[in-house]
Amino acid sequence: MAESRLADVAPELAGALIRADDRRRAAAVHAACAEALRQADLRDARTDRVVAALAADETVGAQEVSHLVDELDEAAWDLQDAVEQGIAEQSAYLAAFARARAASALAFAADAGSAHESACEAVYEALHAVTDTDQLHDAVAAALASPGEQQAE
């Protein structure tokens, strides 16, 4: 497997996700996404549907939330331009960036690709959506350590 972006910024999380069984990995990704959505203050009908489907362990198409990611990225880029022109505050751009990254984390969580790669990418994006990375680390660690969810080997 190729080295993930998460391994570059949080190697311990990347390693833990790779070693985790499918249930714990999914729980960790859901916890990371929930924390990112909470800290970025992102509530949208599209994210709500994806979160509910993931919580129910249903297959989710990432296309709808991917459109939201595109919208939020565009808004963040527009705000970045406005900051550079002196007509917007940096804090507005940072909030928009966080919302886009939180949505991106959810899109990766819904991705049907490699479970390891999608999980690492989701947590990587979630880390870039939060201001309190310790809370995200704690949420992921708690999900990975939760008893009774390990699959039989």
UniProtKB/TrEMBL annotation:
This is Uncharacterized protein. It comes from Herbihabitans rhizosphaerae.
